[in-house]
Amino acid sequence: MRRAGLRRFLAVVVVGGLAGAMAMPSAAPAHGTLVSSVPANGSTVRGRVEAVVLTFTEKPAPFAHFTVTAPTGVRIDSGWSNGEPAELAEPVREFQNKDGKWQPLLYHIGFPVKVTVSHWPAAGPYVVTYHNVASDGDTVKGEVRFTYHGAAVPAPAGWQEPTGQPGPELAAAAGPGQPAVSAQPSTAVQAAPAQPADDTSVWAWLVPVLLIVAAALSYVLIAPHRFRRSGH
Predict the structure, then answer these.
(1) How far is residue 3's CA from residue 150's CA, in Å, rounded to a whole number?
(2) What pLDDT is stored for residue 214 in this prediction?
(3) Which is nearest to 151 in space by CA: 8, 45, 77?
(4) Quick one: residue 26, left, alpha or beta (phi over 0 = left, psi -120 to 50 = alpha)?
(5) Peptide bond into 39 cis (omega under 30)
(6) In sequence order, what E strands does 99-192 have?
(7) Among 77, 87, 203, 222, which residue's beta carbon has the most beta carbons within 10 A?
(8) Whose CA is closest to 153, among 44, 34, 72, 216?
(9) Measured between alpha carbons, how far is residue 24 from residues 7, 15, 185 in Å?
(10) Position with higher pLDDT, 110 vs 20
(11) 3-state DSSP assignment of residue 139
């Protein structure tokens, strides 16, 4: 194969490989994951809202646990309730492990949860946490952060800060290998969930191959110029 033809061939391989990698659809590996929130994660709220709404791909269990924490460190959540299921603007694809195999499933319906807020003690960053166990035993745990820039709203008369913690039902419902429920509500950033074995196996061989091809292409493109400059 001529050098020019080899360069074109390698260029096509690299571009095709990168395009294929970019075209691989993203999907959530666990079931019952968070789809959206109002306020949205990372957003700014300039007016008072009565509740935080979290939408999942599955109706949370009755023993699910939700908190809302103000910048002062005080919890201001005052209970939660399920909203009416609604069709999602875009379907969400998740993987479920059935008989040892990961199978993709599309979800078109969202299940909202309304976490009532008692008051707004101060402007600043607020943290919403959620902790649930999906119907397939997967632990669904994470947080949503937003910033409140509205006026401070005092606590209602007779208000007491909630002290409820995740119950033992969460640990009992978790599938084999799931982490135990923490005694304190977590406000740490949720770690990225592990991808299903089928996806990781693809990347395990795809990334090294692309690196090798890219190195070979760079050599073919650069080497002739180096030889000409050196007089060979």
Answers:
(1) 66
(2) 63
(3) 45
(4) beta
(5) yes
(6) 101-117, 124-133, 139-148
(7) 77
(8) 72
(9) 26, 14, 35
(10) 110
(11) strand
Q: Evaluate if residue 100 carries a pLDDT over 60.
A: yes
CB proximity list for 200: less than 8 A, separation 6 or greater: 194
pLDDT at 202: 43
Burial of 65 (0-12, 13-18, 19+ CB in 10 A): buried
Whole-model pTM over 0.90: no
pLDDT of residue 64: 96
Residues of the chain with pLDDT > 70: what percent? 61
Q: Do residues 204 and 167 lie in contact, with contact meaning Cβ atoms separated by under 8 Å?
A: no
Residue with tokens 């990372």: 42
Reported for 211-219, long-range contacts at CB under 8 A and 24+ positions apart, including other chains, are: 213/10, 213/13, 213/14, 213/17, 214/14, 216/10, 217/7, 217/10, 217/11, 217/13, 217/14
Rounded mean pLDDT of the chain? 76
pLDDT digits (tens, 9 = 90+) for 104-141: 888 899 999 999 999 999 999 999 999 999 888 889 99
Distance CA 94, CA 27 (A): 6
DSSP 8-state code for residue 107: E
Pairing of strands 51-56, 34-38: antiparallel
Mean pLDDT of 68-80: 97
* pLDDT beyond 80 at 183: no
Euclidean distance between CA atoms 192 and 156, whole angstroms: 38
Distance of CA 104 to the CA centre of its chain: 17
